[in-house]
Give the backbone structure.
Amino acid sequence: MREKIEIKWDERGLVPCIVQEEGTGQVLMLAYMNEQALQATLERREMVFWSRSRNELWHKGATSGNVQRLVRLLYDCDADALLAIVVPAGPACHTGNHTCFYREIELGD
């Protein structure tokens, strides 16, 4: 039986979701979910997000084929952030990069 989770949604009804690759631990992307996206993700066992720019549900990889199969879904101590452990079928980033976090800010001396 699944534990009842009380996610703390923000004022827009969203919660951030960090997506991490199983095995490597590499952070692939950060996206947002609403209740409907969370439910769809749990049902499909593939990542579904809320697109803030398009204002609609977004099944990751629906058009590109780069779906992310859900392995585990965790939430933090405050219940205001999610961590999805996934097996990706291709690049996470729309640029074609494996991860969206491929650019680095130089810290200097």
